[in-house]
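From the pipeline queue, job 12 of 40. The input is one protein chain; the requested action is below.

Action: predict structure.
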Amino acid sequence: MSFKFIGKLTAMTLVFAVALMVFFYCKGNEEQWWFWLALVFYYAVGIVIGLKTQRAVVSDSNSQFFTGIMGAIGIRMLLCLVFLAIYLMVSEIKSKEFIVFYLILYLFYTIFEISQLVSKLRAEKSSNLDNTTS
């Protein structure tokens, strides 16, 4: 996994952390630790999924590439649903703010993963084209 990917993922997580601090300062909320736990969860899942997609990109087989990418997306979705189900079962306060925050995190982290994957594939494709024309 490239250091650039981890750096961008960390920067995005820090931006969300600052936004979360501002939200808590302005509004205040009961179960704040769920928000922080969700942010750490998405960061950890982002690193794991990034590692899986990195392996899929460098594979020589198209079927391994497709299986790796679709598997990573499926794993992310499943883990996110499990986390949300745990929240709904364990938490005494079913906060709408948390659900909205959680879905926004899902959206942004998924978009980030896909954009990083596309930029990596674009770089791989251009380097392969350069090698074949030489």
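Job complete. The chain has one domain: 3-120.
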